[in-house]
Design goal:
Shape: elongated
Oligomer: single chain
CATH architecture of the largest domain: 3-Layer(aba) Sandwich
Number of strands: 13
Strand content: 15-25%
CATH class of the largest domain: Alpha Beta
Largest sheet: 6 strands, mixed
Strand order of the largest sheet: 6-7-5-8-9-10
CATH topology of the largest domain: Rossmann fold
CATH superfamily of the largest domain: P-loop containing nucleotide triphosphate hydrolases
Number of domains: 4
């Protein structure tokens, strides 16, 4: 049976004048979140507040109105698109006579359904337990029941609430220990990848910006890509080919969202380390969305939160879904790209428009910190050729009279090793100017 849900979007009437999101856009996003876990949204309403009420967040008159609607329409769940305290959640549940969840709880529910890997499940469970631990105060009917035990469940005199809180705390410690092992394992994997000269390119962006569709376009993979929020949760990595023959590892990451719960940012820190250590970060924006600018600021805020400092020189901004723009918007975008040297790239992951330009930009950004060398190897030096493919990026290769001529691109930390092994290597001569 489907769960009938009512979405309530409270907002302060005295919001900052520079607020980028409209109440309509916030309501649509909240409805999208609810539908992402197959809730039947029977209604959605924006509620303007002069002040937040400590007991119920919204005013008593609105609480009574919603309670009447819940009873009349047989609503099973009220989604409050805000952060509720445990007391506010309990008071609203009592007033409405149905289950109430806030924005954090809804996002945790989505992540819980979408996690597929063992690591993803651990990260979601950790965030959920930290969230739930604060909501164990008088939330059940059996709290005053004393519970004896066999030692490991708590001895006489320990109430059920104390037992539950202690068990949650122990489980949190175990998960955090396991995630620390995951973090160490990922660090070792990154170290092993650094020995092989495959740079990392990370896709980041607001949820439903089209990252997974772009990932599939670039890698010919079949990562789940759907028009829904948080379609992808578990990170995926694939090798991609660059225009001049080089390779890079492309990483698809979880989408960001406004007011992302801090517990989730903390829990997913091990996964998001891939973004922090990436050589190039492609920020994918849904330029067709009415809140594209606000979404961009939310992504920037999360990047700062996870410690991606001074990332401007590593970021390529890709404006996705240009195929959905009307003619006037397309013309304005084209004019901006012609007049602005650092204008974002206009692409469509769905149609393939601008993908070649994006790949060229990725390759150019990767080349900034790398040196090119021209090498000549004996045709029989298979071991040396293999070593080059392992430790450098072979840009071109040609066979000439028993010799191999190669142009390689070398990361800064490998340049001395290459020069020691191939002392005759030299930098390419600059191309003559056009006549």
């Amino acid at each position: 049976m489907t769960t009938r849900a009512l979405v309530i979007c409270p907002s302060l009437a005295r919001e900052p004048k520079d607020a980028l999101r409209t109440s309509e856009a916030r309501r649509e996003e909240a409805v999208g979140l609810a539908r992402a876990i197959d809730l039947e949204v029977v209604g959605a309403e924006s509620v303007s507040l002069n002040a937040i009420r400590p007991a119920t967040f919204i005013g008593k008159g609105k609480v009574d109105t919603i309670a009447t609607q819940v009873k009349a329409e047989g609503i099973d769940l009220v989604v409050m698109d805000c952060a509720l305290s445990p007391a506010q959640q309990r008071n609203l549940e009592k007033a409405f006579g149905c289950k109430v969840i806030d924005r954090t709880g809804l996002i945790l529910e989505i992540f819980g359904q979408r996690a597929r890997t063992a690591e993803g499940s651990l990260q979601v469970e950790l965030a959920h337990l930290k969230y739930q631990r604060s909501r164990l105060v008088r939330s059940w009917t059996h709290l005053e029941r004393q519970r004896g035990g066999f030692g490991f469940l708590g001895g006489p005199g320990e109430t059920q609430i104390e037992t539950d809180r202690r068990l949650i705390g122990e489980r949190i410690v175990r998960i955090e220990r396991e995630l620390e092992a995951v973090k160490r394992r990922r660090a070792l994997q990154r170290a092993s990848r650094s020995a092989v000269p495959y740079p990392i390119v990370a896709l980041v962006g607001y949820t439903n910006a089209g990252k997974s569709t772009l990932f599939n376009r670039l890698t010919r993979a079949e990562v789940m890509a759907a028009d829904m929020l948080f379609a992808t949760l578990d990170p995926t990595m694939r090798l991609i080919k660059l225009p001049h023959g080089g390779s890079a590892i492309l990483s698809d990451t979880v989408g960001f969202i406004s007011d992302l719960p801090t517990t989730l940012i903390s829990a997913f820190r091990a996964t998001l380390e891939e973004v922090r250590s990436a050589d190039v970060i492609v920020h994918v924006r849904d330029i067709s969305h009415a809140d594209s600018e606000a979404q961009s600021q939310d992504v920037e805020a999360v990047l700062d939160e996870i410690g991606v400092a001074d990332h401007a020189d590593r970021v390529i901004e890709a404006w996705n879904k240009v195929d959905l723009l009307d003619a006037d918007a397309r013309a304005a975008l084209a004019q901006e790209q012609e007049t602005t040297e650092t204008a974002p790239l206009a692409i469509s992951a769905a149609t393939g428009e601008g993908i070649d330009h994006l790949l060229a930009s990725i390759e150019g950004r990767l080349a900034r910190g790398r040196s090119e060398l021209e090498l000549t190897l004996d045709a029989s030096d298979g071991q040396g050729l293999h070593w080059l493919y392992e430790h450098a990026e072979v840009m071109s290769r040609s066979d000439e009279e028993g010799a191999l001529r190669l142009t390689v691109r070398v990361p800064p930390d490998q340049i001395e090793r290459v020069k020691r092994r191939f002392p005759t290597g030299r930098r390419p001569s600059p191309s003559p100017p056009d006549a």
